[in-house]
Structures are given as structure tokens and as C-alpha cells.
Write a structure and sequence with these properties.
The chain is mostly beta strands. It is built from 5 helices and 24 strands. The strands form 5 sheets. Strands 1, 2, 3, 4, 5, 9, 15, 18, 19, 20 and 22 form an 11-stranded mixed β-sheet that branches.
């Protein structure tokens, strides 16, 4: 199939676009440093979609999902026709702070946050069970995105990449599912307050791939298990901190009323190792809703230095993880085959049951530290 933009043209604009093995046991616990209390905005949290009242006691997954059940959330979808297409993966920026709040994240099924370079993180958000009229700001790809796009058989919208990363994407089996800004593509510019953000409508993105003659039918996304009943053996944890650097850190507060985890993001650099962190609740610029997810999962994943400042994050095989649902923490193991989705298992090897709903994955280095203080846990990203 003809590519909209040749690889030579992509490389010509590369520079300008890019500017705009797991441990066998979790690290030793250490006390959590005191953290200033952040004020919570007055907005009432918006609960995520509720599971159907007829939710089966045995739950759904890891396979044989009914035709109207989203295998990435375990929920019945309002429009089952959406499940007869590929998921849509979209790369979303997290810096500079002026681009926040981002567009459309509250409508995604899954989000992966991971370290990029120079203390920063970016998101790759997956949309499947519902569409979003605007997602962004879209930024450039990294090596990690290859595993996500391959595992979820997704269409991928992004804003170019470093040359070696771009070559890995365009030499992959899914090269015809890559969409970047250019004439005729659905990626457009949105200019609120002079930001000139690159954004996309997910319905338009899916339609574009079909129009290009790319196979866009329902994919095998088996792997995740869901149950309304929380597993036994959890530890009460109502606040989770994830610190990537002095510039990027976040906090998740469990909200018992909605049964979701609310996202709070950094508002200033903190060079004092957690002593002067400042937070604000993150909302969705599209829906105006607070960013709230039903599951929060911290994945310990090996990071390999590919070139100065560039990391290859190896989301394949298995490793340690901590899953949070219903205000409880669970020590679990993550697994992912080369072409599969991320799954979780209990210590006895049985599938871990996600809460039906959305999931945010925090990807940290395999040498990251976990500190516990009563019901507040803090993860500090480290790449040995």
C-alpha cells in the first residue's frame, strides 16, 4: 500500500517534530518522606462507566468475551460495532506543563506512562470501546510504542520520532497502520491559546485506515480477566505516588465514592527528593472530567540504554508488578508475549482479576524503589 508520506520525507522533518530483566523480588521497603498535602479541587469526580447490572459472578476473560464486551475493560459497550475494528493507539505529550490538561484521556481504555528522556514521560493511550472527538497533544514515538502497537494490534498516530526509532516502526509488520501528520491524514492542528497542538478524532483515524485499504477488523485481544469482586489478599492503600524525576511525578488518590483513582500531576520541579512536591488534579480538556481510572498498575520493566539519553524499554516476557483496585494493593506478575497484551497473574499463577473498567499503567525501571507508609505507597523510578 502506498504510504501517505515517504520515509525520506519523514526523516526530513524529524528534528523539528521531535522537539515540539525484572527483579525476582520487589526492592526493600523504606520510609516514605513527608509530602506536602495538595489541595483537592472542588469538582465532583466523574465515575467511569458502570458495569452492566447483569455482570456475571465469574467475570469475563481471559478469553471468550461476548461480542459486546470490550476485552480491554470488561464492560459492555454502548456501540458494539466499535469492537469490530482495531484499537487506536495515540501518543500524547506530558511536557511542557502548559499543554495540560490533555484532550481525550478520560475516554481511553488503557494508558501507558513511561520515561522518555531528560526526566520526562509521555503517554500512549488506547481507544477501543468508545471514541473521542479530540485526542492530544500528539507527540513523537519511542521504542516502547512498538511493543504496545504490536501487542494490541493497533493503529498508531504519532508525531514522528528519532531516526532509529522511526526505522524500527517503518520496518515492522504494522508499517501500514502508522499515521503521521500530512496531506489527507486525519491528524490536524488545534490552536487554543496559541498552542497549535497536533490532535486527532479517533473515529476519523479508524475510518482513514479503512479508506487506505488496511485490514481493520476485530482483533484477538485475549488476555485480561475482569471481576466485580476484588481478589482476596490485598493490602489497604489509598494513595500512590510515582516519581520519575524531579520534574515529573504524580499522585493517585483512591476515591471511595466513585471507586476510582484520581490523577494529580506535578506543577513545579522538586529538586528536594519529594520534600517540596506540588500537585494539581488533572482533568480532561475535552470532557472537563477529572482523570479517573478504575485500575492502577505499576509495572517493573527493564530499561536498556540504546544511545545517550535514549532508552529501549523491554515490555516482553514477565516481571514484577503492583496492581491497585478498590483501594487495595496486590503483588502480582506481569506477562506479555511478543504479540500479546499485558496480563497479570497472582502469586499462584492464576489470572489476576482487573476491576471492570479502565486501567492506567505506570511503567518504571526494574530497579525502582517502593517505600510504604501506612496506606500511602511511593514508587521511585530507577534504571540500573
Amino acid at each position: 500500500m502506498k504510504r501517505t508520506i515517504s520515509l525520506i520525507a519523514l526523516l526530513a522533518v524529524l528534528v523539528s517534530a521531535c522537539t515540539s530483566a525484572a527483579p525476582t523480588a520487589l526492592p526493600t521497603d523504606t520510609p516514605v518522606p513527608a509530602t506536602p498535602t495538595a489541595s483537592v479541587p472542588s469538582e465532583t469526580p466523574t465515575p467511569s462507566p458502570s458495569p452492566t447490572p447483569a455482570y456475571p459472578p465469574e467475570g469475563y476473560g481471559p478469553s471468550n468475551y461476548p461480542s459486546d464486551i470490550d476485552p480491554l475493560t470488561g464492560l459492555a459497550v454502548a456501540n458494539p460495532a466499535l469492537l469490530a475494528r482495531r484499537p487506536l493507539a495515540i501518543k500524547v505529550s506530558n511536557l511542557p506543563r502548559s499543554i495540560r490538561p490533555q484532550f481525550g484521556l478520560s475516554l481511553s481504555d488503557l494508558v501507558f506512562e513511561y520515561y522518555t528522556e531528560e526526566g520526562s514521560t509521555r503517554f500512549i493511550a488506547l481507544f477501543y470501546g468508545q471514541d473521542a472527538s479530540r485526542v492530544g497533544p500528539i507527540r513523537s514515538a519511542r521504542f516502547f510504542d512498538v511493543d504496545v502497537v504490536r501487542g494490541y494490534k493497533a493503529v498508531f498516530a504519532f508525531g514522528y520520532a528519532y531516526i532509529d526509532e522511526l526505522q524500527r516502526l517503518y520496518s515492522s509488520e504494522f508499517a501500514d497502520r502508522l499515521v503521521v501528520e500530512g496531506p489527507g491524514t486525519p491528524l490536524t492542528r488545534f490552536d487554543p491559546n496559541g498552542a497549535d497542538s497536533l490532535v486527532v478524532n479517533t473515529a476519523d483515524l479508524s475510518a482513514y485506515i479503512t479508506q487506505q485499504g488496511v485490514e481493520n477488523g476485530r482483533q484477538n485481544l485475549d488476555g485480561m480477566s475482569f471481576n466485580l469482586t476484588a481478589p482476596s489478599g490485598g493490602q489497604p492503600v489509598t494513595q500512590v505516588f510515582v516519581r520519575y524525576s524531579s520534574a515529573i511525578y504524580n499522585r493517585w488518590d483512591y476515591d471511595a465514592a466513585s471507586g476510582t483513582y484520581l490523577r494529580f500531576s506535578d506543577t513545579a520541579n522538586d529538586p528536594n527528593n519529594g520534600q517540596t512536591e506540588q500537585y494539581a488534579q488533572l482533568t480532561d480538556a475535552l470532557t472537563q472530567a477529572p482523570l479517573a481510572f478504575d485500575n492502577l498498575v505499576v509495572l517493573y520493566v527493564p530499561h536498556e540504554l540504546y544511545a545517550p539519553g535514549i532508552y529501549d524499554i523491554l515490555l516482553s516476557g514477565s516481571g514484577q508488578a503492583v496492581a491497585f483496585r478498590d483501594g487495595q494493593a496486590y503483588q502480582v506478575t506481569w506477562q506479555r508475549t511478543e504479540t500479546g497484551v499485558v496480563t497479570l497473574s497472582n502469586p499462584d499463577g492464576s489470572p489476576f482479576a482487573f476491576k471492570p473498567g479502565t486501567t492506567w499503567f505506570e511503567v518504571v525501571g526494574s530497579g525502582s524503589r517502593l517505600a510504604k507508609n501506612d496506606q500511602s505507597w511511593r514508587f521511585t523510578h530507577s534504571m540500573p
